[in-house]
């Protein structure tokens, strides 16, 4: 099958143009049509010679994201279930904040990490997305915002899948997002979240970008983390923390720890005490997330008072901590929930 045009960086488009024997400036025109004018076909690239458009059409294709479902929350969050060319489905979420519009993108169809509180892993991993399939989610979101004269101001790679198990595609996507001739989204307005794939964390630190890094931690020790996150058996807690320290030392940037609070499982004061001891001297921020109810997982939410107590314990350890404001709770906006429902329907 032909590759997606969104798979290519500007440099790769420049190389392709050179191979075709065309004028070098054509690459910039193509990039502009893709990310500034945001066209949906090569025929719309009207300042290109017909011969170049035909070569593009012969060599590449656009990503087709078919809208299967769309749900809008009372808080303005919009969740899409998009169909791909091979009948797989992915989720993309637009979140509206008072500081701008954020898009949550997916990097894999499904997930193999196996976190016991997450709907994304139901059904396992089907395949990786290409860079272009990740790019297309943001372009589609921007097209939705265009009539309102608004723009995508930030991106979180926190949708379904483990981005650091699809590292090259994720990095290709990120480079296109921050390119000044592309969507030109500031690196500091992008966050990539990982469950703790240590070799990729080290590699990402060595990229030395300004892109934010978040780690799904969810427990203060190996025993509990392995029960909640089987990936901990591959990359133990101590190794994840050491990789975090390496990232901080290498980049000078603060790291974020995502901690999903699960009633009676990892939300007791003693868990907070233990976590505080691990993190108290690190340049970090803890984001407490009241767990979303997933019927297949049978976990319950931590009571409100217990959430605040957990926060207080960490603060006493001088750990910077906030409680995530929930968005899209009424439309199953947590990762994988909408796709899981769709899978139930399509598989009978």
From TrEMBL:
Can you state which reaction this protein catalyses? adenosine(37) in tRNA + 2 reduced [2Fe-2S]-[ferredoxin] + 2 S-adenosyl-L-methionine = 2-methyladenosine(37) in tRNA + 5'-deoxyadenosine + L-methionine + 2 oxidized [2Fe-2S]-[ferredoxin] + S-adenosyl-L-homocysteine; adenosine(2503) in 23S rRNA + 2 reduced [2Fe-2S]-[ferredoxin] + 2 S-adenosyl-L-methionine = 2-methyladenosine(2503) in 23S rRNA + 5'-deoxyadenosine + L-methionine + 2 oxidized [2Fe-2S]-[ferredoxin] + S-adenosyl-L-homocysteine
Per UniProt, the enzyme's principal EC class comes to transferase
Residues in coiled coil: none
GO CC, one annotated term: cytoplasm
Which superkingdom does the taxonomy of this entry point to? Answer: Bacteria
Q: Which GO terms describe its molecular function?
A: 4 iron, 4 sulfur cluster binding; metal ion binding; rRNA (adenine(2503)-C2-)-methyltransferase activity; rRNA binding; tRNA (adenine(37)-C2)-methyltransferase activity; tRNA binding
The cofactor remark states: Binds 1 [4Fe-4S] cluster. The cluster is coordinated with 3 cysteines and an exchangeable S-adenosyl-L-methionine.
Q: For this UniProt record, give its keywords in alphabetical order, as a comma-separated list.
A: 4Fe-4S, Cytoplasm, Disulfide bond, Iron, Iron-sulfur, Metal-binding, Methyltransferase, rRNA processing, S-adenosyl-L-methionine, Transferase, tRNA processing
**Entry EC no(s):** 2.1.1.192
Q: Which Pfam families match?
A: Radical_SAM (PF04055), RlmN_N (PF21016)
**CDD domains assigned:** Radical_SAM
Question: Which residues are recorded as binding S-adenosyl-L-methionine?
Answer: 161-162, 193, 216-218, 292
Question: Where in the sequence is the active site?
Answer: 91, 335
Identify the cofactor(s): [4Fe-4S] cluster
Q: Which GO terms describe its biological process?
A: rRNA base methylation; tRNA methylation
Give the UniProt subcellular location, in the record's own words.
Answer: Cytoplasm
Please report the stretch or stretches of sequence annotated as the Radical SAM core domain: 97-330
Q: Which InterPro entries match?
A: Aldolase_TIM, Methyltransferase_A, RlmN_N, RNA_MTrfase_RlmN, rRNA_lsu_MTrfase_RlmN/Cfr, rSAM, rSAM_sf
Does the keyword section mention rRNA processing?
Answer: yes
- Annotated positions binding [4Fe-4S] cluster: 111, 115, 118
**UniProt miscellaneous comment:** Reaction proceeds by a ping-pong mechanism involving intermediate methylation of a conserved cysteine residue.
Q: Which family does it belong to?
A: Belongs to the radical SAM superfamily. RlmN family.
Describe its function: Specifically methylates position 2 of adenine 2503 in 23S rRNA and position 2 of adenine 37 in tRNAs.
Name-wise, this protein is Probable dual-specificity RNA methyltransferase RlmN
Recorded source organism is: Cohnella terricola
Please name the gene that encodes this protein.
rlmN
């Amino acid at each position: 099958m032909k590759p997606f045009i969104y798979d290519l960086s500007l440099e790769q488009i420049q190389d392709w143009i050179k191979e075709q024997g065309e004028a070098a400036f054509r690459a910039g025109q193509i990039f502009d049509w893709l990310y500034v004018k945001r066209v949906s076909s090569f025929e719309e690239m009207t300042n290109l010679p017909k011969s170049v458009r035909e070569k593009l059409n012969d060599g590449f294709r656009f990503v087709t994201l078919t809208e299967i479902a769309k749900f809008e929350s009372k808080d303005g969050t919009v969740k899409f279930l998009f169909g791909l060319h091979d009948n797989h489905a992915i989720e993309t979420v637009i979140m509206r904040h008072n500081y701008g519009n954020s898009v949550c993108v997916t990097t894999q169809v499904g997930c193999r990490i196996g976190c016991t509180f997450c709907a994304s892993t139901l059904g396992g991993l089907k395949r990786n997305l290409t860079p272009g399939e990740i790019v297309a989610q943001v372009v589609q979101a921007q097209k939705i915002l265009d009539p309102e004269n608004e723009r995508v101001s930030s991106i979180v790679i926190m949708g379904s899948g483990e981005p650091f198990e699809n590292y090259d595609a994720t990095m290709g996507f990120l480079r296109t997002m921050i390119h000044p001739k592309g969507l030109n989204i500031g690196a500091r307005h992008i966050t990539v979240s990982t469950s703790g794939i240590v070799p990729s964390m080290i590699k990402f630190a060595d990229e030395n970008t300004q892109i934010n890094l978040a780690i799904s931690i969810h427990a203060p020790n190996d025993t509990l983390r392995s029960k909640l996150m089987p990936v901990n058996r591959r990359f133990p807690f101590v190794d994840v923390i050491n990789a975090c320290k390496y990232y901080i030392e290498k980049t000078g940037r603060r790291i974020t720890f995502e901690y999903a609070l699960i009633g009676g499982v990892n939300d007791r004061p003693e868990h907070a005490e233990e976590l505080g001891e691990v993190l108290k001297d690190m340049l970090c921020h803890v984001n407490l997330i009241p767990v979303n109810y997933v019927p297949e997982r049978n976990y319950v939410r931590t009571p409100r008072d217990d959430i605040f107590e957990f926060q207080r314990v960490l603060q006493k350890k001088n750990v910077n901590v906030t409680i995530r404001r929930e968005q899209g709770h009424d439309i199953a906006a947590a990762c994988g929930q909408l796709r899981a429902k769709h899978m139930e329907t399509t598989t009978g």
